[in-house]
């Protein structure tokens, strides 16, 4: 018998989850980095875990190297496809400047995973300052305690292809336990969604990111901290 206010459901994977759970993920990057694929993997993993999901993309003027963001809303009480400002539980930034650009969406206490590999803008207005990704990363490190940083592009390249950086970042999120479903569910979705010839390298990047994020994580005063490795 289910009691009012404590209703839970058994998912297809056999795990209990509380009713009323809500988790919002914003993925930000530039064209060509695989933002939409990353959001699809996360959305399908959430659905496989038994959650309701809503997604939406915003795409800049340029197909490549223009701003791209994807909103993944997970849970039973979703209102609209776009995450309101100040409500995202997790911001996955595939590029430093795009991470900064989307900070208004992050809620207080929300977590950030950022790829330190920078992609300078294709063009900039005359007189504008030079792009300084190091300064952006320092700002994030100083201002946001739940900030996780790696050069995921280099990590993915070492695994076989730089194009798997998006999957590596999902692996990092799974590795620090901040997704509302298991890494096994994510891997099952990857197996179904990624073409066979690319599966091995994507899985390698995913698993290596889990190892790296755990290596740079430390536990202090009962709270997980991380040292940025840029």
From TrEMBL:
Entry GO MF terms: oxidoreductase activity, acting on the aldehyde or oxo group of donors
Domain Pyruvate/ketoisovalerate oxidoreductase catalytic: 31-210
Record bears the keyword Oxidoreductase: yes
Record flagged with keyword Oxidoreductase: yes
Protein origin, superkingdom: Archaea
InterPro entries (UniProt xref): IorB_Oxidoreductase (IPR052198), Pyrv/ketoisovalerate_OxRed_cat (IPR019752), Pyrv_flavodox_OxRed_cen (IPR002869)
Database matches in NCBIfam families: PRK06274.1-3 (NF004917)
Protein name: Indolepyruvate oxidoreductase subunit beta
Organism for this UniProt entry: Methanosarcina mazei
């Amino acid at each position: 018998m289910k009691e009012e206010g404590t209703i839970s459901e058994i998912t297809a994977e056999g795990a209990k989850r509380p009713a009323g759970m809500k988790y919002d993920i914003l993925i930000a990057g530039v064209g060509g980095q695989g933002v939409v694929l990353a959001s699809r993997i996360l959305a399908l993993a959430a659905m496989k875990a038994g959650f309701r999901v809503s997604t939406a993309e915003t795409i800049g003027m340029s197909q490549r190297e223009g701003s791209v963001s994807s909103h993944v809303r997970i849970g039973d009480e979703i209102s609209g496809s776009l995450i309101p400002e100040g409500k995202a539980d997790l911001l996955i930034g595939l590029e430093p400047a795009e991470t900064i650009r989307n900070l208004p969406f992050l809620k207080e206490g929300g977590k950030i995973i950022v790829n330190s590999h920078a992609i300078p803008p294709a063009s900039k207005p005359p007189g504008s300052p030079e792009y300084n990704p190091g300064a952006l990363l320092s700002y994030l490190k100083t201002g946001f305690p739940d900030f996780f940083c790696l050069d995921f592009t280099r990590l993915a390249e070492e695994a076989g292809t730089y194009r798997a950086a998006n999957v590596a970042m999902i692996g990092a999120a799974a590795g620090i336990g901040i997704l509302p479903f298991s890494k096994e569910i994510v891997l099952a979705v990857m197996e179904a969604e990624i073409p066979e010839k690319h599966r091995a390298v994507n899985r390698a990047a995913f698993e290596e990111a889990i190892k790296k994020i755990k290596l740079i994580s430390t536990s202090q005063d009962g709270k997980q901290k991380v040292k940025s490795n840029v």
